[in-house]
Amino acid sequence: MSTYLRNNAWNNQGTFDNSDLLWYAKAVGALQSRALDDESSWWFFAAMHGEYIEESTFPGWGTIPGPPVVPVAPVPSASVQGKFWNQCQHQSWYFVPWHRGYLIALEGHLRKAVIDLGGPDDWALPYWNYLGGDGQYKIPPAFTQKNLPDGAANPLYVNARFGPKGDRNIYIEIPPISGDCQKNTLYTGSNSQTTRPGYGGPKSGFSHGGNVSGNLESNPHNKVHVQVGGQANDIWGLMSDPGIAALDPIFYLHHANIDRMWAAWNALGNSNPTDPNWLKGPTASGDRKFMMPMVDGTTWNFTPAEVDSLSKLDYTYEGLDTESEPLLADALTKRFTKLGINTDNLTIDAAMDKGETSELIGANEKALHLQSDGVKANVKLSKQPLKTVRNSLKSASISSIPDHIYLQIENVKGNIDANMLSVSVNDTYVDHVSLFGLRNASKADGHHGGEGLTFILNITDVFDDLHINDALDINELDVKIVPDNDIAASHDITIGRVSIYREQQGS
Ligand SMILES: [Cu+2]
C-alpha cells in the first residue's frame, strides 16, 4: 500500500509554486544546519554516498566554493565511518537497490523536518524527469535562484554546478542522453567482463566503483551527472564526481528519477535477478552490509530483496503507469529490414536478448593517452572470428539471428570525471560515454585496485552496414575517441585497450 506519492518536480513550472520543492528546500536547510557527525545531517548523508573530507586540495570538501559551505569537522568515529560512509554502489548490479534504500532513508529524515517546520505529513521526494519532454530537460528553476520566496537563502542553490557547457546554464543534452536502456530485457548479462552488463549492471560484490556500468547507470545516470555538474576553470561541479555529488540537492531528484525508471522497467514486465547473491546483497558473500541511519534512530541493514518492488514499500510515483511500452521487436525488425530479411513471423521471443557466448575479434596494441583533440585506435581484426560474423550475417533468418558486435574501451583511468567521450568507428558516430566515477575507479587503494572504468558499446549497426556494402572482409577498424571538454595537462586520461567482440545469439 503506497502512502506516499513522489511527484514530478516540474509541476507548477518547477518553481517554488510547487510546494514539494518549497518544502524540500526548507527541509534541506534544516538538515544542513546539523553537524557533520550527526547521522541525520545533510553532510553525513552525502558522506554515505562518498566523501573527500581529508583531501586538502579540490575536490577536498574543505576547498569547495560555497554555497553550500561544506563542513569537514567534527568527524564521527572510525567505526561509524566504516559502517556508513563511502557506501554507494556503482558499476554493480547493486546500483539501483542500494540507491533505492538510500533515498528511502534520506526521505524519512527530510519528511520529519518538513513536518517539524509545519509542512504536510505526506511530503515525498520529487523526481526530475529530464527525458519527459516539454522543456523538462532543463533543471527546475527552483534550483537556480539564490533566494526563497521569503527572501532567505535558497538551500537548493549551489555554486559548483556548471552545466554541459561550463556556463552555469543547467540542462541535459538529448541525445546523447536517452532512455534507450528501458528497451533492455535482461537485468544482468554474463558474469564475464567481455559481455554486456545488462540493464541493472554486472554481477559484483560490494562495489564502490570501477569496471563496467549497467545500461541504466551508463545512460542516463552517468551522463546526467557530468552534464549537470560540468566543469569550469579547473574545478568541477558537485554532481560530476561521486565523492561530492550528494552535496548537491538536485542529486536526490536525479536519483528519484532513476529509481522511477527502474520501477517503470519492472512495470513493463522485466524481471529483477533471482540469484541469492543479488537478493541477499553483498552480505551473502561475507562482504560489507548496506546500512542506513533511519529517522526513528534505528539502523536499517537492508538487502535488495527488501526493496526490489514498490509493492513492498510505502511509496509510488506519479506517472508511473503512463510509460508507453517499448516494442521489443522494433529494433530487430528494423535490423532485419535493413539486412533484407523477411520479418513476417518475427515474435517478441525472438527479439529477447539471448547473447551468452562472446569471442574477441581484435584489439589495439598499446595504451593510449587521451588529449583534447582525441585519439585514434587502430584495431586489427582476426580472420577466423570475423569470418564467423560474416557467415552469421549471410545465413541470417528470424530463427538464426546474426551476431551482435560490441566495442570495449577498457581500463580508462584519470583524475577528472567531468567529461564525456564521443566514440566513432570508421568515421561513423556510435555514442558518448560518461567518465562519472573515473577518479575513484583509478585510485590504487580503491575497491577494484585502480583498474579504472570500462565501457561497452553496441556497434552491430556498423558491421551490418559493412556487410550490406560487401565490405566486411577487412583487416582493421579505426576507433576515434574525442572528449567533449578540453583536458588540461594536469588531467591525464589513459585508455588501456580498445577491443571488439562478437556475441553469438543463441536460440
Ligand atoms: Cu548518481
TrEMBL record:
<feature type="domain" description="Tyrosinase copper-binding">
    <location>
        <begin position="248"/>
        <end position="259"/>
    </location>
</feature>
<feature type="domain" description="Tyrosinase copper-binding">
    <location>
        <begin position="90"/>
        <end position="107"/>
    </location>
</feature>
<dbReference type="InterPro" id="IPR057190">
    <property type="entry name" value="DUF7868"/>
</dbReference>
<dbReference type="InterPro" id="IPR002227">
    <property type="entry name" value="Tyrosinase_Cu-bd"/>
</dbReference>
<dbReference type="InterPro" id="IPR008922">
    <property type="entry name" value="Di-copper_centre_dom_sf"/>
</dbReference>
<keyword id="KW-0186">Copper</keyword>
<protein>
    <recommendedName>
        <fullName>Tyrosinase copper-binding domain-containing protein</fullName>
    </recommendedName>
</protein>
<feature type="compositionally biased region" description="Polar residues">
    <location>
        <begin position="184"/>
        <end position="196"/>
    </location>
</feature>
<feature type="region of interest" description="Disordered">
    <location>
        <begin position="184"/>
        <end position="222"/>
    </location>
</feature>
<feature type="compositionally biased region" description="Gly residues">
    <location>
        <begin position="198"/>
        <end position="212"/>
    </location>
</feature>
<dbReference type="GO" id="GO:0016491">
    <property type="term" value="F:oxidoreductase activity"/>
</dbReference>
<dbReference type="GO" id="GO:0046872">
    <property type="term" value="F:metal ion binding"/>
</dbReference>
<keyword id="KW-0479">Metal-binding</keyword>
<dbReference type="Pfam" id="PF00264">
    <property type="entry name" value="Tyrosinase"/>
</dbReference>
<dbReference type="InterPro" id="IPR050316">
    <property type="entry name" value="Tyrosinase/Hemocyanin"/>
</dbReference>
<dbReference type="Pfam" id="PF25271">
    <property type="entry name" value="DUF7868"/>
</dbReference>
